[in-house]
Design a protein that fits this description.
Layout lengths: L7 H8 L14 E3 L1 H7 L4 E5 L11 H15 L4 E7 L3 H13 L2 E7 L9 H8 L3 E5 L5 H16 L4 E3 L2 H25 L6 E5 L3 H13 L4 E5 L8 H15 L12 E3 L12 H14 L8 H13 L8 E5 L5 H5 L1 H4 L4
Parallel strand pairs: 2-10, 3-4, 3-6, 4-5, 7-8, 7-10, 8-9
Antiparallel strand pairs: 1-2
Helix pairs in contact: 1-7, 2-10, 3-4, 3-7, 4-5, 7-8, 7-9, 8-9, 10-11
Bound molecules: pyridoxal-5'-phosphate (PLP).
Length: about 350
């Protein structure tokens, strides 16, 4: 089934109906990286959507997500956040930052896995903005989500009003923020007389669902390559389509996606979530040494490795316009310098 394409103004007016707390520096720049593009060959044009520059405690995609999540929490009268992920979570760092700005208490449950718990990178920033941090051995995904729901329950019984990481509620709202990011990109390219041939982003969740939905709402005739940083114990395209559809529903729009509309690529995860890959290391080095833009080894470098591989495979004609949405994640490299340094 096909749905009418919306203008950027129509997309914005449907988003305007949702509660929102302004936190991010928007619009982020769309910056061409010609020295990098020349190095990867193929005659393509590469633009970096600088969501590593969203502000809110050193930038990243979660500044956009949090505009809608904190907006939702405030709208529901919540007085605290109960959040969790890995020790070097960018999500938790930017949520802690948003809470500090709004005067909300922030309790983080951080899954230790193989991470050190010295205050460095994202964890250092969590402490600096006043988050209450607990470490846990619960694995990120369903186990940690159940722990967060149980903590929120306990707090509710004690008379608090917690807003917690409840995927069916928070993922679609976060996706809405990436509908707006794609809208910004469309507007910025139109102002340059250009159209995108492909969008690239690191995601196995909300961000990618929002990018896929934004592309569909605006009727963009381009690829939306969603490069997964991890595997999940569910079918990622199906879950992303469901989340995109829940976001469209929140926006009061009839547009719907199926798993077939989701180009989620899990082939760049190796050697594992959080671990640097050879392609990621090359991407990080090429962008840093030619454009002075940093990538992180966990997320953005692997997505850029996919862009480079696609260009080298001859998938794009010369002159194609490729947009890389830089989701940030930079603080993690300070916690793991050896992950990014050895071969530089
Ligand atoms: C830097 C960075 N990029 C990409 C992602 C993927 O975001 P999402 O889970 O919303 O798809 C994350 C998630 O934590 C992240 O921290």
């Amino acid at each position: 089934m096909s749905f009418p394409a919306l203008t950027p103004t129509q997309v914005r007016s449907s988003v305007d109906k949702l509660p929102r707390t302004r936190l991010a520096h928007l619009p982020t720049p769309l910056e061409e990286v010609p020295r990098f593009a020349a190095k990867i060959g193929g005659g393509v044009r590469v633009f970096v959507k600088r969501d590593d520059c969203t502000g809110l405690l050193l930038g990243g995609n979660k500044a956009r997500h949090n505009e809608f999540l904190i907006g939702d929490a405030v709208d529901q009268g919540c007085d605290m956040f109960v959040w969790g992920a890995g020790v070097q979570s960018n999500n938790c760092r930017q949520t802690a930052a948003g809470c500090a700005k709004l005067g909300l208490e922030c309790r983080l449950y951080l899954s230790r896995a193989h991470h050190k718990t010295e205050p460095q990178g994202n964890l250092l920033l969590d402490y600096l903005v006043g988050a209450h941090v607990d470490f846990t051995d619960a694995k990120i995904g369903p186990e940690l989500n159940a722990l967060l729901a149980a903590k929120a329950d306990e707090l509710r019984r004690a008379g608090r009003k917690p807003y917690f990481w409840n995927p069916p509620r928070v993922v679609p709202l976060s996706a809405v923020s990436y509908v707006l990011c794609v809208t910004e990109i469309a507007e910025q390219l139109t102002a340059m007389g250009l159209k995108p041939d492909a969008l690239y982003v690191s995601s196995a969740g909300a961000t990618g669902a929002g990018v896929a939905l934004g592309k569909s709402l605006l009727g963009l005739d381009c690829l939306a390559r969603l490069i997964c940083p991890m595997h999940w114990p569910w079918d990622i395209p199906t879950r992303m389509a469901d989340d995109a559809n829940a976001a469209a529903e929140r926006l009061g729009l009839p547009h719907r996606l199926t798993a077939a509309d989701i180009d989620a690529d899990e082939s760049y995860v190796a050697p594992g979530y959080g671990l640097v890959s050879p392609g990621g290391r090359e991407a990080l080095k090429l962008l840093a040494t030619n454009e002075a833009i940093l990538l992180d080894h966990v997320y953005s470098a692997k997505a850029m490795a996919a862009l480079i591989a696609d260009v080298r495979a001859g998938n794009y004609r010369p002159g194609s316009v490729l947009v890389f949405i830089h989701t940030g994640g930079i603080p993690a490299i300070f916690a793991e310098p050896n992950a990014v340094l050895p071969e530089m």
